[in-house]
Amino acid sequence: MKYDIVIIGSGPAGHKAAIAASKLGKRVAIIERNFRGMGGVCLHKGTIPSKTMREAILYLTGYRHRDVYSKWYRRKRRITMQDLRLKLADVAEHELEIIHDQLERNGVEIFIGEAQFVSPHEVAVDGETGRKILYGDHILVATGTKPSRPPHIPFDGKTIFDSDEIIDLKEIPRSMIVVGGGVIGIEYAIMFATLGVEVTVLDGREHLLEFCDREIIDALIHHARSLGMVFRMGEEVVGIERFSDTMAAVQTESGKRLVADSVLYTVGRVGDADELNFQAAGLEPDERGRLWCNEEHQTWVPHIYGAGDIVGFPALASVSMEQGRRVVCNAFNEPFEAFDLMPYGLFTIPEISMVGKTEQQLTEEHIPYEVGAARYREIARGQISGDRDGMLKILFHRETLKILGIHAIGESATEIVHIGQTVMSLDGTIEYFRNAVFNYPTMAECYKVAAFDAFEKMSLDRLFEESQLTKANTDSPAETEAEEVNQAELDEPEAVEV
Ligand SMILES: Cc1cc2nc3c(=O)[nH]c(=O)nc-3n(C[C@H](O)[C@H](O)[C@H](O)COP(=O)(O)OP(=O)(O)OC[C@H]3O[C@@H](n4cnc5c(N)ncnc54)[C@H](O)[C@@H]3O)c2cc1C
Ligand SMILES: NC(=O)c1ccc[n+]([C@@H]2O[C@H](COP(=O)([O-])OP(=O)(O)OC[C@H]3O[C@@H](n4cnc5c(N)ncnc54)[C@H](O)[C@@H]3O)[C@@H](O)[C@H]2O)c1
Q: According to the UniProt record, where is the region Disordered (predicted)?
C-alpha cells in the first residue's frame, strides 16, 4: 500500500500531522499499537490523565474554597483512587472518540498494530489481521516516550511505580517518596500532598525546576511545605528496596535511608524506539532512545521526519502538535509560519506558567529590566476564586519598555499567561497593559495592576535619575571652580581701611 505520508504514533504530533496532511489532499496512513491507545501517552498516561486527576482532587477536596468554608466542606470525606479515576475514564472516552472521528472524517487510514521499519521507505504493521507493509514517500516517527525504568529499581506497580502506573494504583497511600523532582514528579507530589498524603521529594539537583523564575518556585515550595511536603535536594537515589510487602526503603548516595509505603520513581523519560528497528531505515537512536532531527524535523534520512517527544526537548503536548504540522508543511513544500515564543504550564497546585525570560536569565545577560507585579489578593477575582496567594510578574526592558517575560503562579495562571504571550509576540510594551481595558472582575486585571506597579517603579527610578542629574549639575567643574573662588574671597582677610 502506497501513501504520501506514513505516520507512526497517534499522540499529539502524529494526530495533528495526519490531519494537516489530509487537508492538503494527501494520502495518509497512521499507525497506533492498539485502538484504545489512540491519542498517545498524552491522552492515556500523561497530560490528560494527570490534569484530570488534578481537577478531581481540587473538586473533591474543596481546595479552591477551603479558606472560606474550611476543611469540613470537603465534598467527600474519604477520597479513593476510584473517585479520581471516575472523571478520567469519562474524559479519555470522549477525547478518544473525537480523535478517531476526526481522523476518519479526514480520510486518514488507521492501522492498528506494532510498527517496524523494513526499509527506509517501508513500515510493517503487525496487527490482529497479520502483517501489512506500508510504503511512504515520507515517513513521520512520532512514537513519543516511556518512563525511564533502570533495571536496579524493583518496580511492582503497587509500592514502587512509575508515572504511567500511578493512575492505576488501587489505594491512595499514606506516605509517598517521589524520586525525581522534575515536572512530572512535582505535579504528582503536590496532588497527593493535597489529598493529605505525607510526601517527600528527592532530587539530585540543588534547585527545583531550574528553568522557572526563582521567586515563583520559592512561592510554590512555600505552599508545598504548608501541605507538609518535605524536599531533600542534592540527593542522588542509588537504590530502592521493598520490604514487609507494603513498604519501601529508598537509599541515597549520601547514605540516607527514607521509608514510606509508596515510591513514585520519575527521573525522566526515554524514547519509545525499541520496537521500531531503526537500523532498517538507516537511523540510530541516541542513548536515551531519542531520534536526532534538524530544525525542519528531518532526520539523517531526508524523507524520514521526527516530531514530538521522541526528538527530545521540550517534550510538551502543545509543542508536539506544532511540530507535527511543521513536518507536513516541510514535506509537501507548504509555507510554515509560527511564533517562536513557547509558554510553559506546570499544573502544580497552585499552577505555574511562564513565557519569555526569567529574572535570572536577564540578569546573566546584563539586560536592563524592571518588574511590574500584581498579587492576587489585590484582585477582586482572586478573592472570588479563593486564591489570595497567587501573583503575576511582567518583566520588561527599562528603556524600550518591551515585554521580556511573564511569570504567574496561582489560579488560572496557565490561561492568563497567553495574554502576555500575545502582546510579546506582537512586540508590545508594558504601556499596552496600562492602557487596555479588561473585563472585570477577571484575573486578566493582574496585567493592569502589574503595569501600574511597573510605572510606579519607573517613576521612582526617574526621581532617582533626576536627583542624580541635579547633583551632577551642582557638582559640575565650572561651578566648583566658581565656588572655590567665592570661598577664597570669603577666606581673604578683610581689608582694613587705614
Ligand atoms: C505525566 C505526564 C504529564 C504531562 N503533562 C503535560 C502537560 O500538562 N502539558 C504538556 O504540554 N505536556 C505534558 N506532558 C507531555 C506530553 O504528554 C507529551 O509531550 C506528548 O504526549 C508527546 O506527544 P507525541 O505525539 O510525541 O507522542 P505520545 O503522546 O507519546 O504518543 C506516541 C504514540 O506512539 C505509539 N507508538 C510508539 N511506538 C509505536 C510503534 N512501534 N508502533 C505503533 N505505535 C507506536 C504509542 O503507543 C503512543 O500512543 C506530560 C507527560 C506526562 C508523562
Ligand atoms: N505541565 C507540563 O508541561 C508537563 C508535565 C509533565 C511532564 N512534562 C514533560 O515531561 C518531560 C519529562 O518529565 P520528568 O519529570 O520525567 O523528567 P525531568 O527530566 O524533567 O526530571 C527528572 C528529575 O529527576 C532527577 N533525577 C534523575 N535521576 C535521579 C536520581 N537517581 N536521584 C534523584 N533524582 C534524580 C533529575 O535531577 C530531574 O530533576 C518533561 O521534560 C516535560 O516537558 C510536561
A: 469-498
Residue ID of nearest Cα to ligand 1 atom 35: 9
Cα dihedral across residues 302, 307, 309, 312: positive or negative: positive
Lowest mean pLDDT, pick from 75-89, 166-180, 281-295, 469-483: 469-483
Strand order in the sheet with 344-346: 344-346, 352-356, 403-409, 391-397, 369-375
* Residue 481: per-residue pLDDT: 54
403 labelled ligand-binding: no
Give yes or no on whether 2-147+270-331 and 350-471 have one common fold.
no
CA of 143 to the centre of ligand 1 (A): 7
Residues 30/109, Cβ–Cβ less than 8 Å: yes
**Structure confidence at residue 465 (pLDDT):** 80
- Bond into 477 cis (ω within 30): no
Write out pLDDT tens, residues 394-405. Answer: 999 999 999 999
Looking at residue 460, what is its pLDDT?
Answer: 83
Mean pLDDT, the chain, rounded, equals 93
User: Average pLDDT in the 280-304 region?
Assistant: 96
Record the cell numbers describing residue 453, joined without a space: 506597579
Question: Domain 350-471 is in which class?
Answer: alpha beta
For residue 73, give the 3-state DSSP assignment. Answer: helix
CATH number of the 160-267 domain: 3.50.50.60
Cα–Cα distance measured from residue 154 to residue 140, given in angstroms and rounded to the nearest whole number: 35
- The DSSP annotation for 439-467 comes to -TTSTTHHHHHHHHHHHHHHHHHHHHHHH
Q: Residue with the nearest Cα to atom 8 of ligand 1?
A: 47
Nearest CA to ligand 1 atom 20: 317
* Nearest ligand, measured from the Cα of 210: 2
Assign domain 2-147+270-331 to its CATH superfamily: FAD/NAD(P)-binding domain (3.50.50.60)
* Confidence label for 191 from pLDDT (cuts 50, 70 and 90): very high
Q: Whose CA is nearest to atom 17 of ligand 1?
A: 42
Instruction: Ligand 1 pocket test: pick from 35, 41, 55 the residue with the most ligand atoms within 8 Å of its Cβ.
Output: 41
375 Cα to the center of ligand 2, angstroms: 29
Find the residues whose C-beta lies inside 6 A of ligand 1.
8-14, 31-33, 37, 40-42, 46-47, 50-51, 114-115, 142-145, 163, 184, 272, 275-276, 308-310, 315-318, 320, 347
C-alpha grid cell for residue 414?
496557565
At residue 476, does pLDDT exceed 80?
Answer: no
**In the chain, where are the structural domains located?**
2-147+270-331, 160-267, 350-471
Query: Structure pTM?
Result: 0.93
Number of Cβ within a 10 Å radius of residue 245: 9
Is 51 known as a binding-site position?
Answer: yes
CA of 209 to the centre of ligand 1 (A): 21
Q: Is the CB of 180 under 6 A from ligand 2?
A: yes
